[in-house]
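Q: For a teaching handout, I want to show students what a protein-ligand complex looks like in token form. Below are the inputs, and the small molecule is flavin-adenine dinucleotide. Please produce the holo structure.
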Amino acid sequence: MFAIERYNKAQNVKEAVNLLAADPDAKIIAGGTDVLIRLHGGSKEYRNLVDINGLAELKEISEEAGGAVRIGSMATFSEIMDSDIVNRCVPVIAEAVSTVGGPQLRNTATMGGNICNGAVSADSAGALLVLQADLEIQGIGGEREVPVVGFHQGPGRVSLKQGDVLTAFRIKPENYKGFGASYYKYAMRDAMDIATIGCAAAARLDGDKIDELRLAFTVAAPKPIRCEHAEKTAAGKPLSEKTLEAISDIVQKDVKPRSSWRAAQEFRLHLIRTLTQRVVRQAIERAGGKF
Ligand SMILES: Cc1cc2nc3c(=O)[nH]c(=O)nc-3n(C[C@H](O)[C@H](O)[C@H](O)COP(=O)(O)OP(=O)(O)OC[C@H]3O[C@@H](n4cnc5c(N)ncnc54)[C@H](O)[C@@H]3O)c2cc1C
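A: Here is the structure, written as tokens, with flavin-adenine dinucleotide included.
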């Protein structure tokens, strides 16, 4: 059985914040697909749990009057994949979460858990980084909104304080309207496998030139990253093979992959180069560009 010492099921977000604030060792359990694995492995970190599963206020997916898309942190990957709003406004998120685990896992696991877990390989991270999503966080001091860019601090570490509950992801209209976007996960198996490399791109065009490119990678550094050098290189460039070459050359400056049992560093660098061209091309084509 799991070595759980204290378990509280929160009835609302305010109560969850108070329960976490009252017990410095307490941790949130959402879908439990990371937490229960950790407990199963004997981790002592999760022996005091505050359960936020079933909080309806955290499951909503909506489109605000001003066009911002809001996705509750407790929305499961299956609910996100099936959402009309997500598929119409920010389909790259549905594309990314459809690569997570298998159907059973996607029916339970949440995007909130995927990001707050701080995993370097989180499949939703790349899509959220190129859409420059904001995170709504409820804490002891009230509500705050922080950008997902910079939220990851290192393997397993994110900018959350004790008492914090991530309540929703918010994508402003200026961060998705007019953009084509794409996500590709390279893994050894087509399902039930963690990414060897994940790559996401979003592109907005100005006629036959790139107006703005956003490029993100997972498992290419000690945390999910945006690629500043590649993005700067792309701005204002014509839609051409030469431009894709230039972007995939310079991206080497943005990444710092390591070797692991899944892949050697050289192979990851090769993947990064290849996927940059493939995913940027697809993002540009989805924005209406032609090569
Ligand atoms: C078989 C299997 C296959 C998997 N395959 C993949 C895969 O292909 N790709 C992938 O990216 N992941 C994969 N995962 C990992 C996992 O499923 C995901 O990271 C999932 O999104 C975690 O969500 P959860 O709701 O289950 O989180 P939980 O396990 O409940 O929580 C995860 C962490 O986030 C914290 N947390 C959760 N919600 C919040 C919140 N709202 N506010 C603050 N903190 C919070 C918890 O305290 C905990 O530290 C896999 C896991 C398993 C078991």
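A: Two things your students might notice: The chain has a mean pLDDT of 97. The chain has eleven helices and 14 strands.
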